[in-house]
Amino acid sequence: MNLRNFWTMCTALAVLVTGTNVWADAPLHVRIDAAVGVGEMEYDSLAADDVDDATFVRRIYLDLAGTIPNTEQVREFLVAESSTKRAELIDQLLASPHHARRMQYLFDTMLMERRPDKHIGADEWHDYLRKSFKENKPWNQLVNEMLISDGTDEETRPAAKFLLDRELKIDAMTRDLGRIFLGRDLQCAQCHDHPNIDDYLQSHYYGLSAFLNRSYLFTDPKSKKVSIGEKADGTVKFTSVFTDESAETFPRMLALPPIEDPPKAEEPYKVKPEKNVRSVPVYSRRLQLAAAMTDPVNVAFRRNIANRLWAMMMGRGIVEPVDMSHGGNLPSNPELLDLLANELVEHDYDMRFLLRELALTRTYQRSSQHREGGEQPSDDLFAVALLKPLSPEQLAWSMMHATGVSDQMLEELEAKHVESDAENGPAQILDPFWREEALHDAIKADVETFVSLFGSAGIQVSNFDASANQALFLRNGAVLQGWLEPSGRKLTARLKILEASPLVDEFYFSVFSRPPTAEEVQQVTQYIQENKDDRDSAIGQLVWAALSSAEFRFNH
Amino acid sequence: MRRNQGCNPIEHVMARRQFLAGSAAGAVGLGVLATPTQAVHLKHQQKRILQIFLQGGVSQLESWDPKPGTVHGGPFQAIPTSVPGIHISELLPHIAQRMHLLSIVRSINIKINDHELGRQFMEKGRRVGEFPYVGAVASKYLARPDSELPGYIHISSRGLTDAAGGAAFLGAKHGQLKLEGVKPPSNLEVPTGLEATVDAGRDQLRLQFNRRFGERRSKALTEAYDASFQQAAKLMSRKAIFDGTASKKDLERYGTHDFGRYCLLARTLLENDATCVKVTHHGYDSHAENFNFHLEQLGEFDKPFCMLLDDLKDRGLLESTLIVIHSEFGRTPKINVRYGRDHWGTAWSIAIGGCGIQPGAVIGKTNDTGTEVTEREVDAGHLFHTYLQAVGLDSSTDHDLSGRSIPMGDPAAQPIKELLA
Description:
The complex is a heterodimer of chains A (556) and B (421).
Chain A: H1 3-18, H2 28-35, H3 43-46, H4 53-65, H5 71-79, H6 85-94, H7 97-112, H8 122-134, H9 139-148, H10 161-164, H11 170-182, H12 202-209, E1 215-219, E2 226-230, E3 236-239, E4 246-249, E5 269-271, E6 280-281, H13 286-294, H14 299-314, H15 334-346, H16 351-360, E7 388-389, H17 392-402, H18 405-420, H19 425-428, H20 432-454, H21 468-476, H22 478-484, H23 491-496, H24 500-512, H25 518-530, H26 535-547, H27 550-553, E8 554-555
Antiparallel strand pairs in A: 1-2, 3-4, 5-6, 7-8
Chain B: H1 9-23, H2 26-33, H3 38-41, E1 48-54, E2 78-80, E3 87-89, H4 93-97, E4 102-108, H5 115-124, H6 134-142, E5 152-156, E6 177-180, H7 196-214, H8 219-237, H9 248-254, H10 258-271, E7 276-281, H11 290-314, E8 321-326, E9 330-331, E10 343-344, E11 348-354, E12 362-363, E13 365-366, E14 373-375, H12 380-390
Parallel strand pairs in B: 1-7, 1-8, 4-12, 5-6, 5-7
Antiparallel strand pairs in B: 2-3, 4-11, 8-11, 9-10, 13-14
Helix pairs in contact in B: 1-2, 5-12, 10-11
């Protein structure tokens, strides 16, 4: 019995015997596994087997590094004998430049929901996010920066994108603060209290909007740059459409006590409002927002991010949809959610810590195939790994990896860089961060093509869907066809010079990140044999079919 | 402004249900609590929607609600139509002859004067929030599973961005397939040099990979993915639809200009099982020279639309096709210094007909000078309910979604009952 299993058993036993978890000092991933499926009679009989190494390596690369591994990375992992090789790979990926990029993509999508850029350019915003994830900035700090920046200081300006690009429109802002940072869509409470559910009150909605009701967009007359100004007065009143009762509220975070304004100062402004002047009050309601949001008493804040990180790894939130936490849509496993949320706070909102622990769980490392002869367990049990559709960015990077396009591109970029800078070039091209950035810049346009076709603007729903336009693009589009041209170092060029058996092997490792089964070797060999008159074309069709298959489309 | 704009659905509806269940008679509570699938509400006959969007805001005074000889009336006359008592602008002579097939709603007040917000409200029946367009709803609930074409197709010459193709939470496959004029969709052609047998062969390989992957896995996601390839294949096999060729006779009737060709394509699509076809006719935002603009624009619109109407009728499709002609708003009664009319969401009109609609009716009224609605005021929320009810969908029930419970139409609005056949 390995250590992990030992701990799991002990914890489970302790829970069984004492009814409480006395193994509070067991590693978090062990406690997570002990909490999953608790009280669900059928969990143990439904839980899928551990995932095999090859599937694990593809899964973890996609989740943490945002792309499938290349053939060497898979082969290397499969032959490694270390008993802790999965944990080692997790650590290696979390420290890689690809992880910072993956988190940049994910959080950009989560925070900005693919809306068109308004006042802060995409590049500076992406750089800000990536840098934050590279240094593993705690979530509360990141949120703090985003809500505090008024956009006047060039240094912190990119962080103001969340507010500035929503143009401080009060209803959109209030709704998105609730959805994205608190996991609740308070839109309904704009009109009235919920009559049956205690946790959606009109005062919550307006309490949140009262943090921002005095703020406005200010356009600098010279530079035309837009930043946030604020007034020293302004109150928030609301009326219920049901009862016609009116109320007024100070800023407040959901059910927490309101934050009353201090007694009005004789001079309420640091900078007085005048034409073409950005006013700054002595007491700013907006500046209370970040502190109130990230205050440990605001439990919704930690649950939201814990739930979102869980969903990122497991394919579904404990609260699902992730922005719909309320009394009528309770977490499927409240103890589990609290465990994650509280541990995250214990570890100062260290998201990398939580992702690492999630990746180490047996829950994460289960197969996506249910048991032989068994049935598919309900998704919210997390007894089987759920299929996760690749994001547009993951799909683009993975297709370029699989087809060898990115390797070839990187090689050209390296050669060019060495040529242009003979002194530093040779050393720089070995730096993983240089390599990642060079490649990213080179393939950016292609990634954007995928985003425009496979992504959608607005509230991000986790449901998978696929349109005819997407399939036509994959079937007939020039982009993918170009990647299948057998030239240079591309996969189709590598395959066409191989004999049957190594060909099948290289093909499976490159596209599916795994060795083929005996049956698959036989099938593909036969296919190549049947089409030997036009072998090159047959190889192209083979790679196309694999790239367009469900096995490639999902992280499984 | 209404207080309850954008009220989201979920809790709201639950609340209403429980109110009713608790306070009203059991029968009422039961009726509201029941959520039968939409399929049950549908009659068996396939229903369709043809949406003509006059982009920019057509003037109600130069179209459906003329006020000749009044202070804001402008230079054009009103003419009698095939329905005694209904007069429309002389700029629509062909429609006038077919008025008995259509109805007019003259009392729309959306309280919005912004192109984008108005357009969204007219499409979604909600002022704010992410809700599906009427075309996406049609695609989801009216399209047959084995339909040969995507459920929602939009023919337009210029880009208007529609987030998620207007599908919102209904999913990409119900988003609009946008056609740039009569040009076929992108990537409809098999890559050059790829023979049909090879193309079929590679698709067999794809399915072979999928079969293996599908073992002991949930089918929902993989099947949705495969469905997108099937739909792509259908589009490719029906690509002749998009080849833009038209008979000489059709071109004589419809005209050779863009809008005529769009209407011809719309006819072909509707004949070929498309569920919602939207045709956008651009260029009604007449802040200057309103009258010259409308003379030209409506001159281009009137005849081809009527040819399409005639053809749908001749083919027996009219009774199963809802036709809506709308803008994002109307135009100000007051004529500005540049002989233009400006944005006006306060008192304007649409025309509607076909499936489920009482023909030859006029709903609502504006005052003599057209500055306000005096009778039967409605907004886009009422219109949205009306469209759905007309094609046999119960717009007061929830969308068929897991995890979310969202009413199709705004619970605060109702259909215009007297317009429904």
